[in-house]
């Protein structure tokens, strides 16, 4: 049984064409504290971007700006040449904790805020993350990894075009992280959304992303394309993973 879904072709390139997300001189200060300074960035549709950098370098702030949870000090954010605010509904943000409502069932958490007949869609979203059979359970009855799957389903039901992941696997054990890698990769292949993944796990960034951006002192210190085909976990290139699989 294969635990990882591999990128056989550049399937994501199907979804590409033009720039999806654009940062123009994006600057953020908290009072006197400069956090992000005139970031310039263009992200094509469907790209899987990992953002890495030391704790406190502004990674979460960057995602919050893109999600509209923080306001810019200066600069411009746009998607498809429109202000990003026009795309809020296409954008979902996921955190290190699933942030589920404990008094609602798993299914109700996935359908949170939706009107009308969302139950079938919520079930379908749960099926996609492999948790169809947990629909009636409470969040407290799930493991950390399962709760993150529910958070993913809650994002999927909105059919996002931009998925912002803020260290979503940071609190999970290594084996669960590995399973989540496979799931995130599968969903990305299938849905073709643009992903911005914040992680402090550099191997994770290289394994999952098309492109790795290093934030350093409020600037982009490194902007690396990861060539395809990427090293596969079964090959000796990643001894940690192949050891688990053999
Ligand atoms: P990272 O996610 O890379 O660890 P953050 O984006 O959370 O970093 O924070 C970047 C810097 O901005 C840190 O110095 C942090 O203390 C500061 N910061 C973040 N949010 C706020 C806020 N709401 N008010 C004041 N300072 C903040
Ligand atoms: Mg952070």
TrEMBL record:
It comes from the Bacteria. One of its GO terms (molecular function) is ATP binding. Residues 21-242 form the ABC transporter domain. The keyword NADP does not apply. Keywords: ATP-binding, Cell membrane, Membrane, Nucleotide-binding, Translocase, Transport. Belongs to the ABC transporter superfamily. This is ATP-binding cassette domain-containing protein. The chain holds residues 21 to 266 of 293 of the full protein.
